[in-house]
């Protein structure tokens, strides 16, 4: 997805940037220095975000959209300002198209329930693929079961990309929804959203993009290419946990019924029936994660102060180095496509060492990675391995940390008497 307006306000210096993340400088309980390479699971928060959370809770904590007092007025203004920041960040046409959720998982479930169960019927098709996170598979399985729609999968190429030669055959007038991740959380694969969106719209289908991994690392523009739904999480975007976003095109959101029902989402409630509030409140039942949503606005300010050009340059340097050094390391197999088709995520295995043992031994050296199936069991079946080790970089990682990763692999192999 291409670039909305962006004006970075500071030159990028990784050592300077790291000072904004106090956790990166704290010794670990075992005395090791943290090498945090698990950003795909959750990223760290800069001081700007931590300070914002404290400011909200300590100085103007109140509920939003109810205020007839000064605190309530202030917090409502701040929350709506955060919504507008998110709107500009993804280039949505209006802030009412930005729905606060608890994260990517809830955003996708919202669409699967409120759009899928209302509009899908037997004979319709939902198109996904085997590299999706469980959050973009299981809700569609359940919706397919409930509606009689059929779930279909785009095949993958041998290097872990969507096989575009099947798009025309699979995306037909039966297709009502294409749900796809912009960046795989395991292979790092960058998927061809522009091509998929164009083809989906040609046949009258809608496209949902899972931006959990892409939004923190690449510019996102929901109008170029035009997409219908976008889901992402605050906590992978240097913001707080517990808050995420669903972007939906107004026309689609208007046509959907509410997902969760209760306070704040109604216009009028009578004994037998109710009417719904306008967007975005219609999809924001109950009390929002208020400080977290405002904190997400601060995280976006932070990202924009660096700019995606600098973020991408730093992460590409790290990815290039990892893709160069890992295959030269004895026993290592890496999965996924070549540099030009991926974001800054690399999953790998080390012969004769289980990924969980790797992660444990790495941890002794302070190197934090993820090991397991990463909530992508179908992808691991396709890879024909039960688990992988994964490193996922952020802009605050350094080239020295890639060296620390390679040293940690040698350490693990040494512990297993493989060298
Ligand atoms: N989609 C993708 C592509 C993801 O990577 C994740 C989380 C989710 C959806 C769900 O996000 P949540 O914020 O609602 O939990 N992925 C990972 C991961 O790779 N390791 O831990 C969480």
Task: List the SSEs and their pairings.
Blueprint: H1 14-18, E1 35-36, H2 47-59, H3 70-90, E2 98-101, H4 104-119, E3 125-129, H5 138-147, E4 150-154, H6 167-170, E5 175-181, H7 193-202, E6 206-210, E7 229-233, E8 244-248, H8 250-255, E9 266-269, E10 274-276, H9 290-306, H10 308-325, E11 332-335, E12 345-350, H11 355-364, E13 367-368, E14 370-372, H12 377-383, E15 388-392, H13 399-415
Parallel strand pairs: 1-13, 3-4, 3-5, 5-6, 6-7
Antiparallel strand pairs: 2-8, 7-8, 9-10, 11-12, 12-15, 14-15
Helix pairs in contact: 2-9, 3-9, 4-5, 11-13
Ligand 7TS is lined by residues 40-41, 103-105, 133, 135-136, 181, 185, 210, 212-213, 233, 370, 374-375.
Description of the structure:
With 419 residues, this protein is of the alpha/beta class. It folds into two domains: 14-45 and 307-415, Aspartate Aminotransferase, domain 1 (Alpha-Beta Complex), CATH 3.90.1150.10; 50-304, Aspartate Aminotransferase, domain 2. The protein has helices at 14-18, 47-59, 70-90, 104-119, 138-147, 167-170, 193-202, 250-255, 290-306, 308-325, 355-364, 377-383, 399-415, and strands spanning 35-36, 98-101, 125-129, 150-154, 175-181, 206-210, 229-233, 244-248, 266-269, 274-276, 332-335, 345-350, 367-368, 370-372, 388-392. The strands form four sheets. The chain has a seven-stranded mixed β-sheet with strand order 2-8-7-6-5-3-4, sandwiched between helices. Helix 2 runs antiparallel to helix 9 (290-306), helix 3 packs across helix 9 and helix 11 (355-364) packs across helix 13 (399-415). The radius of gyration is 22 Å and the shape is globular. Bound molecules: ligand 7TS. Ligand 7TS is lined by residues 40-41, 103-105, 133, 135-136, 181, 185, 210, 212-213, 233, 370, 374-375.
